[in-house]
Specification:
The complex is a heterodimer of chains A (119) and B (109).
Chain A: E1 3-7, E2 10-12, E3 18-25, E4 34-39, E5 45-51, E6 58-60, E7 68-73, E8 78-83, E9 92-98, E10 108-109, E11 113-117
Parallel strand pairs in A: 2-11
Antiparallel strand pairs in A: 1-3, 3-8, 4-5, 4-9, 5-6, 7-8, 9-10, 9-11
Chain B: E1 4-6, E2 9-12, E3 18-24, E4 36-40, E5 47-51, E6 55-56, E7 64-69, E8 72-77, E9 86-94, E10 97-100, E11 104-108
Parallel strand pairs in B: 2-11
Antiparallel strand pairs in B: 1-3, 3-8, 4-5, 4-9, 5-6, 7-8, 9-10, 9-11
Classes of the chains: A mainly beta (119), B mainly beta (109).
Chain lengths: 119, 109
């Protein structure tokens, strides 16, 4: 069955960097697009970024554009989110989510990893 | 900056019917926004319910249905069950990027 396991979260200071990973199993990783979605404590869902199955296209929310980079390693079945210049408002649980089909987003989700940005 | 708006909260009685809506600041929601709906219960990851306006996932209960209604995307729950109490989020496609609505907290009372 589809399994997505995020890791890499933790406590960092403002301005620092962090890289999240999402290891996938149970399906052909290289055939699907992926999203990162975050949820600040007690708040709603915020879409963060998307990467196409072959990494040919990436898209970002305005709130992270220029600071975050989504990437993937199809040989390792792993999705990444490189987060630079972190701010307090980036504090959230970060979920990776797999497309079911093109334009059928986030059919499967991981359990999330918590990122806390605090001095 | 596109804003997607949902009702902050709704209450429904068990066995009743309720409709949640999802509006975009860019104008009327059409099928080209590929509306999606997700359910999230406390302490859990979200779960996909509806994609491309009205299509159900294999695990979506039959009592959930999606549509377009008056320029908005809509999620209708019929014969509401106590376990349907949750937060519901819509997600709209905006030319490469996606935008979530603020969520609707559905109380079954």
């Amino acid at each position: 069955q589809v399994q997505l396991v995020e890791s890499g979260g933790g406590v960092v200071q403002p301005g620092w960097s962090l890289r999240l990973s999402c290891v996938a199993s149970g399906f052909a990783f290289s055939g699907y697009g992926f999203h990162w979605v975050r949820q600040a404590p007690g708040k709603g869902l915020e879409w963060v970024a998307f990467i196409q199955y072959d990494a040919s296209n990436t898209y970002y929310a305005d709130s992270v554009k220029g600071r975050f980079t989504i990437s993937r390693d199809n040989s390792k079945n792993t999705l990444y989110l490189q987060m630079n210049s972190l701010r307090a408002e980036d504090t959230a649980v970060y979920y990776c989510a797999k497309d079911l089909l093109r334009l059928v987003p986030a059919g499967h989700w991981g359990q999330g990893t918590l990122v806390t940005v605090s001095s | 900056q596109t804003v997607v708006t949902q009702e902050p909260s709704l209450t429904v009685s068990p066995g009743g019917t309720v409709t949640l809506t999802c509006a975009s600041s860019t104008g009327a929601v059409t099928s080209g926004y590929y509306p999606n709906w997700f359910q999230q219960k406390p302490g859990q990851a979200p779960r996909a319910l509806i994609y491309s306006t009205s299509n159900k996932h294999s695990w979506t209960p039959a009592r959930f249905s999606g549509s377009l209604l008056g320029g908005k995307a809509a999620l209708t729950l019929s014969d509401v069950q106590p376990e349907d109490e949750a937060e519901y989020y819509c997600l709209l496609y905006h030319g490469g990027a996606w935008v979530f609505g603020g969520g609707t907290k559905l109380t079954v009372l």
